[in-house]
């Protein structure tokens, strides 16, 4: 379906609840692919469900981890899926086959993972209580530099094209690093008032435009321009374009994201299932979407192309969309909808082969209209599917997953003939599971500081107190 016909000239944000995607287990996080045709949902039991978003059905199920999945990220061509779990593992999955290509083990839980937007051989890992890492699929990894204050509670994110990595710590300091050399290109600090600082919870970028938002602990969402921030340099003081907050309820934000066109900002409340939508250019609140009372929000994502939002609460993915009103005038321009029946008086020559009442000028105009040639063979690229630096669409993109038909009463020997006759079947699928190559596993060791300090007894530690000599006669 042509996306240009679906775009409305008015509001371009969801207005009402449009159903739910109820997986077999409790959903914890979700992520759209680049086209918005597939939705990956990570669950509490470690499984990943890939939904076909057009048919609202499960296209594939992957038994990925043992513990809950906490973060998901699609590659640019949508053929790979990156997952992180609380079992300290980060895995790269082949979406078509469902096989694990590479597995990385960390000594600490992972907060967030993200593929490089332009290179699926690199991805970003944000471990808990440690500096972020830039991992190469060849097995090499680089630890991103941290600020001079030494704060290790760091969150990191790629920019729109993967040229820079933005990191933020719990003391309000944001560093902009070159993604290749890891050199600091710019930095600034978010302060509240004159001296106090606020912790940075997340950094999100728009798919279109040069803006990013920073979700901080002071319940304010700040929107910055990337060009302005980089021009300010190291220890700069850029001013935010917008400051968004809930002045009435003083809401703390769980997750924030941009719309597909970058014109709207959605933020989910950490106290309840409520979604706030602002217009970025003006900064005014345009809509509040309320879910079921008593449920806490876990994750919020915006569809890359359409005005659709997916939110997770109580293990169910809720879909929010616009109210679609049928407009028959799109098919016939002279069509009119009537509230009640009206008697129609037909003209005398209305059903004649040649209209005698028609004037000569109108007849000439009709001949001109008939001579216009309409090109119906050339496929022009859809602007919503192309980046600003690309001329055409990516032909290698995986938009849909093939699903084998379910046959209730198959004939005898049907499965055997399918394996021999089907030419598209790959040899890997016909091999037994024992002969298939196992995924590569890498152990990444990090220097994690101890969670607690050594308990002191009277100014000395426990070991010194235990070795203290007791007064008396020495033993023979």
Indicate the CATH topology of the domain at 28-245. Answer: Methylamine Dehydrogenase, Chain H
Named CATH architecture of the domain at 28-245 = 7 Propeller
What is the CA-CA span between the terminal residues? 95 Å
Report the CATH C-level class of the domain at 28-245: Mainly Beta
Architecture overview:
The protein has a domain at 28-245: Methylamine Dehydrogenase, Chain H, CATH 2.130.10. The protein contains six helices and 33 strands. The protein has helices at residues 3-6, 226-232, 360-370, 414-421, 427-430, 462-466, and strands at 16-21, 27-32, 38-43, 47-52, 57-63, 69-74, 80-85, 89-94, 100-105, 110-116, 119-127, 133-136, 141-143, 154-158, 164-169, 173-178, 184-189, 191-192, 196-197, 200-205, 211-216, 221-225, 242-244, 253-258, 264-269, 274-279, 285-290, 297-302, 309-313, 316-321, 440-443, 456-457, 460-461. A five-stranded mixed β-sheet has the order 6-7-8-9-31, with no helix packed on it.
């Amino acid at each position: 379906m042509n996306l240009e016909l679906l775009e409305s000239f008015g509001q371009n944000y969801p207005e009402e609840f449009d159903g739910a995607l109820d997986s077999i287990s409790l959903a914890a996080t979700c992520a759209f692919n680049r086209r918005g045709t597939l939705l990956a949902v990570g669950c509490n039991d470690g499984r990943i469900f890939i939904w076909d978003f057009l048919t609202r059905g499960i296209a594939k199920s992957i038994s990925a981890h043992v513990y809950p999945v906490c973060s998901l990220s699609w590659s640019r061509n949508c053929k790979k899926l990156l997952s992180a779990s609380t079992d300290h593992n980060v895995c790269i999955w082949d979406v078509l086959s469902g096989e694990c290509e590479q597995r990385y083990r960390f000594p600490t839980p992972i907060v967030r993972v993200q593929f490089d937007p332009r290179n699926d051989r690199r991805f970003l890992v944000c471990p808990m209580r440690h500096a972020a890492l830039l991992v190469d699929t060849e097995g090499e990894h680089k630890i991103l530099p941290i600020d001079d204050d030494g704060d290790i509670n760091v969150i990191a994110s790629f920019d729109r094209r993967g040229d820079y990595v933005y990191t933020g710590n719990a003391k309000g300091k944001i560093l902009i690093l070159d993604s290749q050399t890891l050199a600091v290109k710019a930095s600034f600090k978010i302060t509240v008032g004159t001296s106090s600082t606020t912790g940075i919870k997340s950094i999100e970028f728009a798919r279109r435009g040069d803006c990013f938002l920073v979700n901080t602990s002071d319940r304010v969402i700040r929107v910055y321009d990337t060009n302005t921030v980089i021009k300010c340099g190291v220890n700069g003081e850029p001013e935010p374009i917008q400051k968004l907050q809930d002045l009435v309820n003083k809401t703390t934000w769980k997750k924030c994201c941009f719309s597909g066109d970058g014109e709207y900002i959605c933020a989910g409340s950490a106290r309840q299932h409520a979604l706030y939508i602002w217009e970025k250019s003006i900064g005014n609140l345009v809509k509040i979407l309320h879910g079921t009372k008593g449920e806490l929000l876990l994750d919020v994502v915006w569809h890359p192309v359409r005005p659709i939002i997916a939110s997770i609460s109580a293990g169910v993915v809720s879909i929010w969309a616009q109210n679609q009103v049928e407009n028959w005038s799109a098919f016939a321009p002279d069509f009119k909808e009537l509230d009640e029946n009206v008697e129609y008086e037909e003209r005398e020559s209305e059903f004649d082969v040649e209209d005698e009442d028609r004037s000569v000028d109108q007849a000439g105009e009709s001949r001109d209209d008939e001579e216009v040639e309409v090109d119906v063979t050339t496929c022009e690229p859809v602007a919503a599917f192309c980046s600003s630096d690309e001329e055409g669409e990516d032909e290698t993109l995986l938009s849909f997953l093939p699903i084998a038909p379910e046959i209730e009463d198959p004939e005898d020997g049907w499965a055997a003939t399918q394996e021999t006759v089907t030419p598209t079947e790959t040899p890997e699928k016909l091999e037994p599971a024992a002969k298939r190559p196992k995924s590569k596993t890498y152990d990444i060791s990090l220097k994690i500081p101890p969670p607690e300090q050594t308990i002191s007894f009277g100014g000395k530690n426990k070991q010194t107190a235990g070795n203290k000599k007791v007064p008396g006669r020495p033993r023979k």
